[in-house]
Amino acid sequence: MESKDDLPKGRENRQKDSVMTNLLDPDARGRVILVGAGPGNPELLTLRAVEVLRQADVVVYDAEIDEGILTYIPKTAQAISVCSESEGEKNERQPLTQGEINALVIAHVRTGSIVVRLKGGDPFVFGRGGEEVEAVRAAGMPVEVVPGVSAALGCAADAMLPLTHRGLSDVVSFVSTPEQETASSVNWKGLAGSGHTLVVYMDIKKARFITQCLIHEGIDSHIPVVIIERGTCKDSRIIRSVLINLENTIQNEKVVGPAILIVGDVALFAKPKNTLHQDYEELDAMAD
Q1: pTM value > 0.85
Q2: Of 149, 166, 189, which closes a domain?
Q3: Residue 89 is assigned to a structural domain of this protein
Q4: Position 1 in a domain
Q5: Which residues are within 8 A (CB) of 218 and not within 5 positions of it... i.e. 6 or more apart?
Q6: Stronger pLDDT, 191 or 8, i.e. the higher one
Q7: Is there a contact between 84 and 98 (Cβ–Cβ < 8 Å)?
Q8: Containing domain of residue 130, as a range?
Q9: pLDDT given at position 211
């Protein structure tokens, strides 16, 4: 295979011109469009996301994408569901590696197809969107990115919970639950506490680990927390608790995910929805 350095100068320039033409021409064929599908509710898709879905020849979408969003895919398009590595624990299907997903997308775009890679939330917030863009570029293909409403922002709005609030929080941190439960897997220091809001893209099986890490860093064990399951969707649940009682609350409420955890005083604003426990004071008392 020829490397970029092996290409004659004229041929290299022609390749660059071809890529730029595809990027500038909305009707150009053979390109990848990485699209953020938002946190779940189809009504939160951007206008641009709907537009590119309707012009797609092939849509490669994450298995967790809501069915309502998939209705925007044309009947003439090939729709391919993939279970990514990050979804593997939530699906019975064997997850594909990131490399396998990249290869699938590139193989289709090389046929001249408009390939939409549809990902939950925003592709660049814990969505491995950067890796997919790099792979497409390395293959010499044009790529566009359409941002989506991130799960953190969508879920917070669903719960009527401001991530920042004057006098309570002026710092927000976003963390994805680490694959390995080791003390060094995430630098938890300074991520939560007074004046801070911590949002955890959560593997609910690691609730005890998250609790232990934060308490070890000196976070008040009774700090308010909110668990938001399937945020923005019709069956979403908004569950209030306190940090020390996080694991018990998840078990009692039978939370299965996907879920977002919000830690901090702003959690007091959350409006409970579809839960067994409604009162923060009751949950706080249970933790004593």
Answers
A1: no
A2: 149
A3: no
A4: no
A5: 193
A6: 191
A7: yes
A8: 27-84+96-149
A9: 96
